[in-house]
Amino acid sequence: MRREAPKSVADYTPLFFPALMLIVFFVVPFSTMIAVSFFKRNPSGFYTPDFVFDNYARFLSVFFGGVLGFSLMLAVLVAVCCVAIAFPFTYLLTRRPRRVQTLWLVGLLSVLSLSEVIIGFAWSTLFSRTAGITNLFVAIGLMDKPVALLPTFGAVLTGMVYQALPYTILVLYPALVRFDPTLLEAARTLGASPIRAFFNVVAPALRNTIVATLIMVFVFALGSYLLPQILGRPQHWTLSVLITDQAIYQSNMPFGAAMAVFLVLISLALVGLTLLVGRRENAL
Amino acid sequence: MTATLLRRVYFTIVALFLAAPLIVVAGVSVNSRQELSFPPVGFSLAWYAQIFTDPEWRLALIHSVTLAVCSAAIAVAVALPLAWFLWRRIAPWANIFQVLGLAPFILPPVITALGFLSFWATVGLFGQFFTAIVSHAIFFVTLPLVTLSLGFASIDRSLVEAAATMGADDRTVLKTVVLPLILPYLVSGYAFAFVLSLNEYIVAYMTIGFTTETLPIKIFNALRYGYTPTMAAVSVFFVAVAALVFGAIARFGDIRRLLGAMSSEGN
pTM for the full model? Predict the structure, then answer.
């Protein structure tokens, strides 16, 4: 049975339920959120319908500019750390026997599926004074007494790298697993050491994959909504944390929605850029 | 020789980094007194029992499991006909629904969550349990959609043609050829959605967080009122469930293929 164009209306029936669900429960909520971003705040309820730009005008403040700058900086840092750790790791992993690969993939998926709440809780325990890693350092004589390592910027960064690392590896995995091994063999035959061959042949050949992965991880890190709150101080809060805070605790849904729309625009622009990079890679 | 050693060291460091917080949490969860100390003082599994005996934790567990079972089922029910249609028909504009199915997962989760919050608040159903089920189903529809699309792409079309030549109509082909072939992909799509729904916090919080507690919501609320070893026990429980489910997928299916290793059979 070949693929064929639908001939009658009846041929469209399977599409009916998915289309209805996705439109009613994704397109409509998304549009509602955009609409709400133009509404007025109503402290006693959710919002009052209106059409104002006040919520967007609030972006033009030093405070907001600071949060935005910090969010972008943090996401860039997380993306760079993750790709730097994950790229050589994933490359080596794809050269291992299938059983080893499967075992690692199961482990990585298990960590990736963990709730941000649990990741936050686990790292706040690891960084705490009573149950933390510093107790280990005291035991082996590196430190005099245990200290709390949070809330600090380092704790936020570590937590977010932990959260994004399995994602980075799994994004890189398909590209690296398909990487043509003959390129590397050629380099090795010509006398390059494995490490030299990796940096001079593998990494440049996958330049576009690396760029696309950086962007994907950047968008992923922008979405982290709890770790900066659990592991950091208020000055480490990101745009995602601020959106949650405004929508839930300050009951200012319109302002939260406006920030969310803004975050969508940044993310969409970057995802579009990823697709563009990917297309150029396929054309080569 | 040195290369192998370097690789081992590197793999060990990554493994340690990924496992360290989980080891600490597992250690904390067996403390005999109600305190978080590591290494644990004494040994007790009472905190694991508490997940099932303490009424609040048990209720949260029931909420979480109900939510995950139902939302994953709806996600598969939405993804299956869509993936089948995209495979069976040539209708370029229908790809828009594929994009819609992928979007909730690619966008930062806060955005999808806030979209659901404004939607349910506007239609006046905010806080009802089923709104979380529907929201999770849409949020995670991406996973069965991706696994099923992979499954359909792997079907040898000549099999289907053979069935059609023998006189089978669309419905018979679907039931006797297509569905058995994509069943593993359907099951893994469901499993992915199930595990992620079980762990999901922000969408659940923004839809039913004020009225109902799921396990992640309960852990987060408990974080603010002081730590108990039960939270650690629940976390270990989550890791165990995820490892079990993904382990089963790897055992009975091809997890490497699911994650995109299509043409690596020669390695």
Answer: 0.88
